[in-house]
């Protein structure tokens, strides 16, 4: 979903992946098989303007 919206993965360190689009960088937590908290998921969708 993130890549289809034009975000590019620029690096990953530990449990966070950093995406960039139009000069804006956004760290996204990636903790393996753990589910992302609903509030965090909704916040990322809003901030990254995902559909």
Your description of this structure?
InterPro entries: HicA_mRNA_interferase, HicA_sf. The chain has one helix at 38-47, and strands spanning 8-13, 16-21, 24-29. The protein is of the alpha+beta class and 51 residues long. It has one domain (3-47). Strand 2 (16-21) and strand 3 (24-29) form a beta hairpin. The model has no long low-confidence stretch (mean pLDDT 93).
Short overview:
By secondary structure, this protein is an alpha+beta fold. The protein has one helix spanning 38-47, and strands spanning 8-13, 16-21, 24-29. The termini are close together.
Output mean pLDDT.
93
Quick one: how many beta strands? 3
SSE sequence, one letter per element: EEEH
- In order across it, which strands form the biggest sheet? 1-2-3
Strand percentage lies at 35-45%
The value of Rg in angstroms is 11 Å
Number of domains: 1
Note the main sheet: 3 strands, antiparallel
Ranges where pLDDT stays below 50 over 5 or more residues in a row are none
Q: What best-fitting shape do the alpha-carbon axes yield?
A: globular
Structural class: alpha+beta
Task: Give the % helix.
Answer: 10-25%
């Amino acid at each position: 979903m993130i890549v289809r919206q034009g975000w590019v993965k620029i690096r990953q360190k530990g449990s966070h992946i950093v995406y960039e689009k139009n000069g804006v960088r956004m760290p996204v937590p990636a903790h393996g098989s753990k589910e992302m908290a609903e509030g965090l998921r909704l916040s990322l969708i809003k901030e990254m303007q995902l559909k």
